[in-house]
Amino acid sequence: MTQHAYSILTLHFSLFPLRLALWRYMRNGSNIPSIFAQTVKRHPNKPALIYEATGETWTFTQLDELSNAVAHWARDQGWVSGDVVALFMESRPLQVALWLGLAKVGVEAALINFSLRCEPLLHCVGVSGSRAIVFGSELADAMSEVAFPSSQPMVRFCTGDVSEDVLSDLSAQHLDPLLASASKHPLPPCNPPKGMNDRLFYIYTSGTTGLPKAAIVVHSRYYRIAAFGYFAFRMRPDDILYDCLPLYHSAGNIIGVGQCLIQGLTVVVKRKFSASRFWEDCIKYNCTVVQYIGEICRYLLSQPVRPSERDHKVRLAIGNGLRPSVWEAFTERFRIAQIGEFYGATECNCSIANMDGKVGACGFNSRILPNVYPIRLVSVDEDTMELVRDSRGLCVPCRPGEPGLLVGRINQQDPLRRFDGYANQDATKKKIAHNVFKKNDTAYLSGDVLVMDDLGYMYFRDRSGDTYRWRGENVSTTEVEGILSGLLGQTDVAVYGVSVPDVEGKAGMAAIADPSESFDCNSFLQSIQRALPSYARPVFLRISPHVDTTGTFKIQKTRLQREGFDPRLTTDQIYFLNPRAARYEPMDEDLYNTIMESRMSL
Ligand SMILES: *[C@@H]1O[C@H](CO)[C@@H](O)[C@H](O)[C@H]1NC(C)=O
Ligand SMILES: *[C@@H]1O[C@H](CO)[C@@H](O)[C@H](O)[C@H]1NC(C)=O
Ligand SMILES: *[C@@H]1O[C@H](CO)[C@@H](O)[C@H](O)[C@H]1NC(C)=O
Ligand SMILES: *[C@@H]1O[C@H](CO)[C@@H](O)[C@H](O)[C@H]1NC(C)=O
Ligand SMILES: *[C@@H]1O[C@H](CO)[C@@H](O)[C@H](O)[C@H]1NC(C)=O
Ligand SMILES: *[C@@H]1O[C@H](CO)[C@@H](O)[C@H](O)[C@H]1NC(C)=O
Description:
Blueprint: H1 2-27, H2 32-42, E1 47-51, E2 57-59, H3 60-76, E3 84-88, H4 93-104, E4 108-111, H5 118-128, E5 132-136, H6 140-145, E6 155-159, H7 164-169, E7 173-174, H8 175-181, E8 199-207, E9 210-218, H9 219-232, E10 240-243, H10 250-261, E11 266-269, H11 278-284, E12 289-293, H12 294-301, E13 316-320, H13 324-333, E14 338-341, H14 351-356, E15 361-364, E16 375-378, E17 380-381, E18 386-387, E19 404-410, H15 416-423, H16 425-431, E20 432-434, E21 442-452, E22 457-460, E23 467-470, E24 473-476, H17 477-487, E25 493-498, E26 507-513, H18 521-531, E27 540-544, H19 553-563, E28 573-578, E29 583-586, H20 589-596
Helix pairs in contact: 1-9, 1-15, 3-4, 3-8, 9-10
The site of one 2-acetamido-2-deoxy-beta-D-glucopyranose has 3 residues, from strand 24.
Protein name: Arachidonate--CoA ligase
Catalytic activity: a very long-chain fatty acid + ATP + CoA = a very long-chain fatty acyl-CoA + AMP + diphosphate; a fatty acid(in) = a fatty acid(out); (9Z,12Z)-octadecadienoate(out) = (9Z,12Z)-octadecadienoate(in); hexadecanoate(out) = hexadecanoate(in)
EC number: 6.2.1.15, 6.2.1.3
C-alpha cells in the first residue's frame, strides 16, 4: 500500500507543469514537430536516438535533418495535410524520423504492427486509407503475400538492404537513396497548420472480434502521455531510456520515444525485445530508465541469474501490468529503485490501457487513502451520462463492482482552476460539475465509465452497446454494423445485444432502416450466412422506416435495446431467426411469449 500511496502522491503533485505547458501549447498553436524543434535547440549535439541493432547514433540535429528529408520527400510525392501513409517495419530510429517528418507536412502515419500478415495486414492498411506504404526490407516476404486491392492504389517504398529484383517484384522504390538526396533544410509549417487537437498518427488496438481498429492519436494526446510519464515518475533530462517495446504501439512510441522528442532524453531503440540481452544492453548504453510490459517482467525473471542483471545503472522501470505477485521479486533481484506503473488518471484519460485495447486494470486509486489523489467513480445514468444525485444533491460514490463516471476533484486552492476556465470556456463548462463530493466543490468529468475492484484497481467498462457476448464469443456491434450495412448498400444499421430469459449472454439484434417497406429478410439471410460467422448473425431483426444515426445514435441504441424484441412496444416489424427452419419469421405476441417462456431454443 505504501508503494501505491507514494505513486498517488507523486501523480498528484506532478501534474502542474504538464497542465501548464499543455495549456500554453494549445494556446499558441504548437504541435509535436514545433515542440521537437525547441528540444533540438536546447542541445543540438546530444544523442537523441541510438539504434541498438547497429550501434548508430542520431543527434537531435541529425534526427531533425533526417525528418526534414522525409518531409521534403513526402511533399515531392504530392502528399498534403491530412493524407495518410502506412509504416510497416520493425522498430528502428528511421521509423521515428518518418512519422515525425510526415507530421511536418501534415501527413499522418498509420503505424502497422510488424507481426501482421495476410488478412489482418490488408485490413489495417485498408482502413487507414493510406496513399502509400513504407515497409522494412525485413518484411518483403510479408508484402509479397498480400495483394492490395486495385481500388486503393498505393505507392510502395522499401527501406533497408534490398535487391533490385525484390524491389521490382514488389513494384517498390528504394526509400533510402531518396532520403539521402533530399534537402535537409526545414520546411515552412504545413498548410493548413496542425494544432494540438489535430491528428498526428494512428495506432491500432486489438479489436474484440479479431481485426484491429485504428485509434487516432492527436498531437495533444501524444504530448500528454509522454509528459505525464516524465513528470509523474520524475525522470531527469540526463536519463537514458531503453525502449524495447514496438514502435507501432503507444508504449514504445509515445511513453518511450516521446521522452526524446519532448523532454530531450536519449532513447535507445531496440529492434526487438530480447530477455537474454536486456541487462547487457542497459549496461552498454548506460541506461537509467527501462520500459516494460507485464510479460517482459516475467520473461526477465525466468532467465538464469547473470551478473549483469545487478550491474546496471537502471533506476526506474516504467510500464504497465507488473503483477503484485512479482513486483518485489522484480525490484529486489534486478535492483530497481523505482517502479512506475502507468496508472490512468483523469489527466491522461487512462488512455494507455484504452488505446492498447488491453483488457485489465487501467488505473488505480487507493480505497484506503481515497482523498490523496482525488479521483472517484460516481453513479451516472449511462444513457444520458447525467450524474445521479442523492437527497442532499451530491453525487453518489460507487461501491466496488459498480460502474461509474470517473471524476477528478478540482481543488479550490489550485491556481490551475483559473486557467482551466480560460482554455475553452464552453468546452470547459461541460466538463465541470458542482456539488460532487461536498457542497460547493467542483469536479472534472472525464466522460469515461469505469469499474473499480475491491483493491482499488480500475477497469474500463465496455462502452455500453459496443460489444456483447453470445455463444461464448465477443461480438463487436460496430463490426457487424459495418458488414450488414455493406450488404445493404450502406443502409443505416444499428446492432445491439438483447437479453433473453434463461439464455446466457445477449442475442444479437439489428435495427435496419428501410423506407421502402419491402425488405426481404430471407434473401438477406443468405447474404448474412456468407458474411458472418453463426454467432455474429443477428437473432432478431427490426425493420424501421429510419434508424437515427446522428449524434443521439447511442441514446437511440439504448432505447432500441430496452424495447428489445417485444412486438407490443413498436410498430416496426420484428423478425426472429428460427434456427430449426433456418429462416426469419415475423414476430407476433405468440412467438414472443414462446421465447420469453423458454419454450423455443435459440
Ligand atoms: C509556445 O509556448 C511555448 C511554451 O511557453 C514556447 O516555448 C514556444 O516558443 C511558443 N511557441 C510559439 C510558436 O509561440
Ligand atoms: C501484433 O500482431 C501480433 C500478431 O497478430 C499479435 O499477436 C499482437 O498482439 C499484436 N500486437 C499488438 C500490440 O496489437
Ligand atoms: C481527455 O479527456 C477529455 C475529457 O473527456 C477530452 O476533452 C480530451 O480530449 C481527452 N484528451 C485526450 C488526450 O484524450
Ligand atoms: C557510459 O558511461 C561511462 C562512464 O561514465 C562512459 O565512459 C561511457 O562512454 C558511457 N557509454 C556510452 C555508450 O555512452
Ligand atoms: C456554498 O455557497 C453558498 C453561496 O456562495 C453559501 O451561502 C454556502 O454557505 C456555501 N456552503 C458551504 C457548505 O460552503
Ligand atoms: C471476450 O472478452 C472477455 C473480456 O471482455 C475475455 O475475457 C474473453 O476471453 C473474450 N473471449 C473471446 C472468445 O475472445
